[in-house]
Amino acid sequence: MSAGHACVDVYQGAVAALVPFFVAERAYSYAAASGIVLAASLLSSVAQPLFGVLTDRFAMPWLLPLAAAASGAGIAVSGIGGSYPLTLAAVAVSGLGVAAYHPEAARAARAASDGRHTAMGWFALGGNVGFALAPPLVAAVVATWGLRASPLLGLPALAGVALCGAAVRAAAGRAGSVPVTDEGAKGAGRDDWPAFLRLSGAVVCRSVVFVGLSTFVSLYVRQRTGGGAAAGTAALCVLYAGGAAGTLAGSRLAGRWGRLRVVRHSYAVTVPAVAGVILVPGPPLYLFVALASAGLYVPFSLHVTLGQDCLPRRTGTASGVTLGLTVSIGGAAAPALGALADATSLRTGLLPLLIPPVVAWFLLRGLREPLPAAAPSPVAGSRA
């Protein structure tokens, strides 16, 4: 499940990694380039909660390999031709594939992990590794052969289809497994919607910062350091790769200090880290990119388990929101940041990113740790 997650989330990271190349080859403005990120995020934002609701009612393991294929196909054709509408449509298809994948994958991963935070941390780590691999993969292909070589970016999706298929077969083979449905969740605890909505608001704030940095940090670092494409790609790699360490650290810290305490402290760290990215000149800003990555990624897997424990009767819905809607919805803010950057400067366009972590900290202040929900059972082959 973790390796399949990596293959799918390559395509979430690939959208931001492609932005500098669209700007360079097609002379897109900041607003037009961020519109590509919005196209990938918007459809995913709307669709993911719907897939989450379906996952709560029906086992859909077949959706995992299909979603992996769709996420790769969209990115593979995004660089073909020069039509802006077709590019938007292609990345939107990729976003739909990502939306279809995450709710069912999170439910299946929770079943396989028996609800353990560290095991769910490994599942989240897979996605972070996929994010981290996206910039060097895109740079290796597109910097060498241009956007017309984007079909080569579809290769990880083939591995994703195989890995997801293997995970589905393994889950189906577990003895006594039954899918989670509303009927099977009747014995679970009560859903705490007020707490879940506050948590979701915090994840939206994280998403705005993460997507904003993902979209523009490569271009910004190239400006601030005077480096070329390699300097920008390196910054994006640091932002994504720091997530791998941050995710594992988050699950371990939560075991000692509690999830909500760790999440609140992470958002407190994110504020000075983002300020450093925006204000510190030269190579030292890479250190602040890494610190911002840690602040944004330490809470990542904790959001998922907290959401599932807030809604023990609707773990698919909780996964669709915490992994999907609130993560993708940050793309809606990217065009506004791009328009501000076009009107002023890229540095000014990034300044609003200092506000969301503060809002997230206040949303989580006073929130109580929910009781752990029972881990769902994996999918049974007969019901699948």
**Number of H- or I-type helical stretches:** 15
- How many beta strands in the DSSP annotation? 0
Q: What structural class should be given to the helix and strand makeup?
A: mainly alpha
Number of self-contained structural domains? 1
Cα gyration radius (Å): 20 Å
Q: Tell me, rounded to a whole number, the average pLDDT.
A: 84
Q: How many angstroms does the end-to-end distance come to? A: 17 Å
**The CATH topology:** Growth Hormone, Chain: A
Notes on the protein architecture:
With 384 residues, the chain is mostly helical. It has one domain (2-364): Growth Hormone, Chain: A, CATH 1.20.1250.20. It contains 15 helices and no strands. The chain starts with a helix and ends in a 20-residue tail after the last helix.
Keyword list:
15 helices; mainly alpha; Growth Hormone, Chain: A
